[in-house]
Amino acid sequence: MGAPGSGKSTFCDLVMRVSTRPWVRICQDTIGNGKAGTKNQCLTGAASALKEGKSVFIDRCNLDREQRADFVKLVGPQVEKHAVVLDLPAKLCISRSVKRTGHEGNLQGGKAAAVVNRMLQKKELPKLNEGYARITVCQDEKDVQAAINTYTALGPSDKLPPGFFGQKNSDAKVQLGIMKFLKKKDPPGCSDTVSNVSPENIQSHATKERDSNQVVESHEEPKMASAGSNISLENIPTLAFPSISTADFHFNLDKASDIIVEKVEEYVNKLGNARLVLVDLSQNSKILSLVKAKAAEKNIDSKKFLTFAGNITKLYSEGGLHCTAIANATNWRLKPGGGGVNAAIFSAAGPALETATKATAGSLSPGKAIVVPLPSSSPLFSREGVTHVIHVLGPNMNPQRPNHLNNDYVKGCQILREAYSALFDGFASIVRTQGEPSKDNFEKELKREPQPEQGSTNGDQKAKREAAPEVDMNKKYKSFVKELGPNVGSSGDGNTGEQTRKAWGSWAQALYDTAMHPERHKNIIIEKSDDVVVLNDLYPKAQKHLLVLARVEGLDRLADVQKEHLTLLKTMHGVGLKWAEMFLSENNSLIFRLGYHSVPSMRQLHLHVISQDFDSKHLKNKKHWNSFNSPFFRDSVDVIDEVSQNGRATLKDENFLSMELRCHRCRSAHPNIPRLKAHISSCQASFPAFLLQNGRLVLLEGKDADH
DNA sequence: GTTCTAGAAC
DNA sequence: GTTCTAGAAC
After folding, report:
1. At which of A402, A432, A462 does a domain end?
2. What's the rounded mean pLDDT across residues A32-43?
3. Can you list the GO cellular component terms from the UniProt entry (predicted)?
């Protein structure tokens, strides 16, 4: 399965060239005497090849379930069905498709892009319950090569293990480094096969689209919105737990990982929609990779069980992962200290946890766990949204410590199983009694704290608002580890405020100087008050693009913003809004968005007020586009919400800037800036749902960005 | 932030 | 040959 240009034919060819298995490739592009044929021809061809005892590749896009269902149904269970999904970046597929139809000139190329876009919008990843014994999802060239190797090595009577392989993050927000893919040489000999990959799809769709514009204008419901935007947020009870007994208690990692996976598998379904997260501080954690591999083998739902490298006491503030409960691998006295996770959690939770723990129990025996509700005075509660700590004691295999099991792994494994059962039972009891402890609850809890600066007028918005940060493990984790350094551990607080900051270059000082010395810049300033200065962006990226500068020394960027700046943020928003409305009164077709760059290039906090036409000669590169049209752009309304609730705004990774180019309305992908600009100049699709909410878009009253 | 430009992509 | 991107310099 895969879009045109994803490399299906190449895949088959490379396998068949070396494989000792009798393969037959059924390709709709060539099945009609070397020309494109029909689906029925493919079905018949496949059936007869199977009857002859051959193995068959169905070389066909098969992106939606309906298309592939007939092939799965073709033969009974005696024939094993596999899916290999070439889920490569849209841009790469487009680029290859355009290349192979290029002889017809640009128009053809443009249609290829349109077709790939359209097809990808219909993409449904296959599921095992469609009838596949094995599914392999390839998301980059490395995955593809691995799958090629796997199938090449498959002898005539060999079998592959069943299950789902490959990451399922179909809604990955960042697809980086397209150029890296393109720079790679195609495998030798593929150039002659590439030319006949699925032209039928392109031709037939291209014919249908002959009268339409060169690029897809999706006037349909923008399905891609859910894939590329921030709409879906995890809002579910989550337990973060460290690996029990494998650190100080020296429990064998391989055995421990087996038990973790076994117990997770047992509980993951009992827990309903709740989620389990195995956490380890180390970036190269052996236990994490063992567990990850074994969980994948067992096909455990990756939405319900994840592994996460990071500091368990800062999962929300540093990792963007909100966990309702965290497990503490403690000692039998339930006392702080001793190093490791126990020391870290007691230290981060403050004396409140010690008191609450004492009130619950005096000691703990191996294999047991106790649930301790965390008082709201604990920083773990207020900062991280953790409502419960579950202390758990595992078996001790460390001969240097008292009461060790003398290498008795029969007993050790039994106790470790008990420990995880007790832990997950404890979590289950929280889930049951709390109903749905969610981010919303977390936010409600936070709101209980006195917030003098906060008006009560927008409470309604808050309830609907999408809770703060998305979970984006890889990105988050990378920057997170960079900040913490590899060995920052149990010491607790104090080292997280300072991030690695680039120094400002001389060219980055212009806005700072304007804000601090407005009198020197009278010619460009269009409004000035004690709090802010407003000016037109020197290189506007849209018809209307202005900046509202904060006039506070030391407030260089969003990362510097704290709760004390809430009033200022609201002032800036108000000023920006006023200007947007002024522009709207002159041109009622404009639509505005107000927000900040997560990592600005210019010093001095500045709010962008920018019209959504992006019609500008200054918009020249990917960074320009993505800085306004990826999660890197933080809407002012969200920043205000986050700062008022958490005291800081979430910043998104700079990697978003190299994300593939997608239309901000219909979310279609485009191979380069000129093509993107040609598309957006006429795309009238409705904006993604995310932008239609909470006043993120500013437009004329009565006008509807939805139509 | 932009400009410049080599070299890749087309 | 022309278009486009990415990285360095500023």
Report:
1. A432
2. 84
3. nucleus
- Record the tokens describing residue A59, joined without a space: 């070389």
Q: SS3 of A650, please?
A: coil
Q: Which domain holds residue A126?
A: 6-163
If asked whether residues A532 and A411 sit together in one domain, one would say no
Strand boundaries in A247-367, DSSP class E: 275-280, 305-309, 325-329
**What pLDDT, on a 0 to 100 scale, did the predictor assign at position A426?**
92
- In Å, what is the separation between the CA of A468 and the C1' of B3? 38
Residue A500 falls inside a structural domain: no
Where residue A84 sits, what CATH number does that domain have?
3.40.50.300
**Same domain as A402, residue A263:** yes
Cα distances from A385 to residues A172, A344, A465, in angstroms, run 25, 17, 17
Count other C-beta atoms under 10 Å from residue A697's C-beta: 18
What is the count of structural domains for chain A?
3
CA–CA dist A142, A498 (Å, integer): 36
At residue A532, the 3 state secondary structure works out as strand
* A103 noted as active-site residue: no
pLDDT tens, residue by residue, A567-624 = 999 999 999 999 999 999 999 999 999 999 999 999 999 999 999 999 999 999 999 9
Domain-ending residue, one of A163, A187, A214: A163
- pLDDT for A227 equals 31
Positions 80-119 in A, CB within 7 angstroms of strand B: 95, 98-99, 102, 109
> Cα A82 to chain center, whole Å?
27
pLDDT in tens, A506-553: 889 999 999 999 999 999 999 999 999 999 999 999 999 999 999 999
pLDDT given at position A369: 92
- Specify if A299 maps to a domain: yes
Nucleotides of C under 7 A from a protein CB: 3-6, 10
My answer on whether A15 and A104 are in the same domain is: yes
How confident is the model at residue A556, as a pLDDT? Answer: 95
Higher-confidence residue: A659 or A236?
Answer: A659
Q: What's the one-letter identity of residue A6?
A: S
In this complex, the residue with its CA at the shortest distance from the C1' of nucleotide B8 is A183
Q: Are residues A122 and A251 in the same domain?
A: no
Our measurement of CA A199 to C1' B9, in angstroms, reads 22
- Its pTM stands at 0.48
Q: What are phi and psi of A452, to 5 degrees?
A: -55, -35
**Residues in Cβ contact with A138 at an 8 Å cutoff, skipping those fewer than 6 apart:** A84, A85, A86, A87, A88, A144, A146, A147, A166
